DNA sequence: AAGTGGTCTAGACCACTCG
DNA sequence: GAGTGGTCTAGACCACTTA
């Protein structure tokens, strides 16, 4: 029994292509069950490992998600919009809202941690500090619809934290950290965001409940007060399937 | 629905963790060869499929790349910076530069295609057109250091293309499409960019020479002329490992 | 020619889900 | 209890790279 031959494309790939086409065409949609390993083995006369490989193609592309003891299901994609400029505009946090207020979806913060730490070199550089200088660190995880969607860590230079002591509290009050900074004349006036994309580490996969085939987005944000003085540096790791990032800017 | 809990970590995972740690610590770096399937089988007393699964973990994370007949190698990450706002600023294309001028790296355009087509619904919507109306389409692939890094398609409404006929040419002249639009009073004054992240389709994997474990970034850009009139809509698919996107904006 | 990864077969035991 | 995906073994042939 020489394996079926078609010159070039491997069998598992052809099966994956066929299933992908059914998803693309809409014949299979969000939450539908894909044919299982046994079904594929029988239908195509192949070994188990080959059927698995076909399914793992789709899983690694983020189009499907395996559920132990149940099946492999087509995966849904309902991203949340995150506005760059508008989101951080003074209008919003100046009125006591949070940067998340432009979202229609519910959100929660869980696992908020506030501490001090000597930051890594790139953080110190972003804040314009000498190394070895400790900074205030605020770490938190955000949930949307009860599902973890991002981890965020923000760093505040000691001088800044000293000027606005409430940023050390868990509850920083209406408008959050930026509003407290504004009260002491350190309002952010400019932001820089750097976006990188990559596959998550196993730890992040677990922490954000990411199915296989889901990339993450790293956003590194620097907030600058008047005179281009850096007042905050934030690192955010987001579930890439959960967001659409939007930036509006002038020519 | 989700998710999985683990009592004991599988063998393939432990091996992958070990190798990942060697990469993270720097003991193995860019271009180094990882232990092969045979080595892992012997060293850990496992079957071939298990060794393969360990290596495929790293490959799917984008940390390593397999080379047929040779080995599995640690993968390098040298992204190019792409500026949002600054890049598209009038300063640059007003002086006859291209949006790529802020890059230090060499770039090339290959496979430039200019034609007319009835666009998909979301494109028609972005350009404010009735459906079924044909638009001018410019498709091209960009190379950096000889390596394909992005595919871009831009759409121009028929009225806009009629006003600036040179946008139908392959060579649109100094400053490119935007400069031609500016000459007829249709200079873009505002841009909106939407960023999405996902795993590539097999076709994109081939087209952009993407190794497994490399996500792509989709940028959907709308250029608006005076009076918020949409003049161009562009869709870009980028090799996620090749770029850092930067956006600067005011509070 | 030897070694490598790519594909595939044919089994096995397990933990889990579901009716 | 039947079915599912998760893990693993022990083989095989192939195309390709490297020396």
TrEMBL record, chains A, B:
Molecular-function GO terms, alphabetical: DNA binding; DNA-binding transcription factor activity
The superkingdom listed in its UniProt entry is Bacteria
Name all HTH gntR-type domain ranges. Answer: 9-77
**Entry's SMART domains?**
HTH_GNTR, UTRA
| PROSITE patterns recorded | HTH_GNTR
Per the UniProt entry, what are the Gene Ontology biological process annotations, in alphabetical order?
Answer: negative regulation of DNA-templated transcription
The alphabetical list of record keywords is: DNA-binding, Transcription, Transcription regulation
Listed SUPFAM superfamilies: Chorismate lyase-like (SSF64288), Winged helix' DNA-binding domain (SSF46785)
Which PANTHER family does this entry report, sorted A to Z?
Answer: GNTR-FAMILY TRANSCRIPTIONAL REGULATOR, MANNOSYL-D-GLYCERATE TRANSPORT/METABOLISM SYSTEM REPRESSOR MNGR-RELATED
Q: What is this protein called?
A: GntR family transcriptional regulator
Organism, per UniProt?
Answer: Nocardiopsis algeriensis
Q: Output the lineage of the source organism.
A: Bacteria, Bacillati, Actinomycetota, Actinomycetes, Streptosporangiales
